[in-house]
Specification:
single chain, alpha/beta, ten-stranded mixed beta sheet, two-stranded antiparallel ribbon, 14 helices, globular
């Protein structure tokens, strides 16, 4: 089987409009959470979010393309282009406009792309529904007719994040959109790993993208009891005794993944190596997590990587800040690591970014690769008192530590559990 490495990363997140900016903020323990500006929150109790700040899609897409596509596509294209640029697969990037750079590599043209999204174009769907006053005021007995844009359907299709990015970059190989709840972005990375490991020549761009900060999403998650009602930047506090739900967030992260032999042949910079992947289903409940499924996912990823649990130096937790979710994950970690748990550091990066849904799994993979590379574990913010039922060694300050092997977790509605193992490249 082929070894698989990461050679490029692109991201737009609540912490920054590039991956480097986002990583620098994360390792310093800064927050990207603040008051919601995308929607009017005066009459709802969920008032904070992890929003992008000053993002401009015009270097990546033309004016008509921006108008005709949902923001989750804008974010995905931006992250994919920056990842390809970071990996040295496009020339002339960055540029002032999207005509200043072009893909130049036949290797990229023959490559693949897999991007996950949980909510797809929900912002554009909501906008189309609200735009037509016939929804709220129409003559009695009159038919309901929205007169939507002819671009509404393609603009909101979940797979369009991958296909539009492929169009922009000229990628003509394997192309796939994944929607597997909040695990979607990490699933994309895992499936790209399997594809490359089995012999696909690559490269494969993989990640997640979301633009869920709209009234429909905020109220939908809110009324289900999933969102925090705290009104300041400390709202996301994974594993804390005072946690009361997650903070919704937006953004995208895309990784360039390659077979090691191909990466070495072209002299690419290597962030780290992906070594194992597992994806399990709880077969239990629509929204409530099951510890057993999470345990199986972690154990299977460790086995797939061909390592032992005592070799793992760090775990990036899913850690959304929900009551049930954090408790289930903490129990699963304790069961997997047993007596090793006290010396296995854990951090929950959604305390800084909020929950970017599918994009979180991809971004947290990239952050974990940087931990492997630089030996810095980012902190978990806002945990003054840990929940006594979540007995795990949380990292609360930026910490220097030699990390050689790590896991990252992503779990989602429907009982889907995804875990990726990775290794420092030397």
């Amino acid at each position: 089987m082929n070894r698989v490495v990461v050679t490029g990363v692109g991201a737009v997140t609540p912490l920054g409009n590039t991956f480097r900016e986002s990583w620098e903020a994360a390792r310093e323990g800064k927050t990207g959470i603040g008051p919601t500006t995308r929607i009017d929150t005066s009459c709802i109790p969920w008032k904070v979010a992890g929003e992008l700040k000053g993002f401009n899609p015009s270097p990546f897409l033309g004016p008509k393309e921006i108008k005709r596509t949902d923001p989750f596509i804008h974010y995905a294209v931006a992250a994919a282009v920056m990842a390809a640029g970071d990996a040295g697969l496009v020339k002339g990037f960055p540029a002032e406009d999207n005509y200043g750079w072009r893909p130049y590599s036949e290797y990229l043209n023959a490559g693949g792309i897999i991007i996950g999204s949980s909510r797809g174009g929900i912002t554009t769907i909501e906008r189309a529904l609200l735009k037509n006053s016939a929804l709220t005021a129409r003559p009695e007995g009159a038919p309901l007719f929205l007169r939507p844009s002819p671009y509404l359907m393609p603009a909101t299709t979940i797979g369009m994040a991958a296909t539009y990015s492929a169009q922009v970059l000229g990628i003509k190989g394997h192309c796939l959109g994944i929607s597997n709840a909040c695990s979607s972005g990490l699933n994309a990375i895992g499936e790209a790993f399997r594809l490359l490991r089995s012999g696909y020549t690559g490269p494969v761009l993989a990640g997640g993208s979301e633009a869920p900060i709209c009234r429909l999403c905020v109220e939908g998650y809110g009324v289900s009891g999933a969102l925090s009602r705290t009104e300041d930047f400390s709202a996301s506090r994974p594993f804390a005794r005072t946690r009361d739900g997650f903070v919704i967030a937006e953004g995208s992260c895309v990784l360039v993944m390659e077979r090691l032999d191909q990466a070495l042949r072209r002299g690419a910079l290597i962030y780290g190596e992906i070594t194992g992947y597992a994806n399990t289903a709880d077969a239990f409940h629509q929204t409530r997590p099951d510890t057993e499924g999470e345990v199986r996912a972690m154990r299977q990823a460790v086995a797939d990587a061909g390592i032992r649990r005592d070799e793992i130096d760090y775990v990036n937790a899913h850690g959304t800040s929900t009551l049930l979710g954090d408790r289930a994950e903490a129990e699963a970690l304790a069961r997997v690591f047993g007596e090793l748990m006290p010396r296995t550091p854990v951090s929950a990066l959604k305390s800084m970014t909020g929950h970017m849904l599918a994009a979180s799994g991809a971004l947290e993979t990239a952050f974990t690769l940087m931990t492997l590379r630089e030996g810095i574990i980012p902190p978990t913010l806002n945990v003054s008192t840990r929940d006594s039922s979540c007995n795990i060694p949380l990292v609360k300050e930026p910490t220097r530590k030699k990390v050689r092997l790590a896991l990252t977790n992503s779990f989602g509605f429907g009982g889907v559990n995804t875990v990726v193992a990775m290794k420092k490249f030397v």
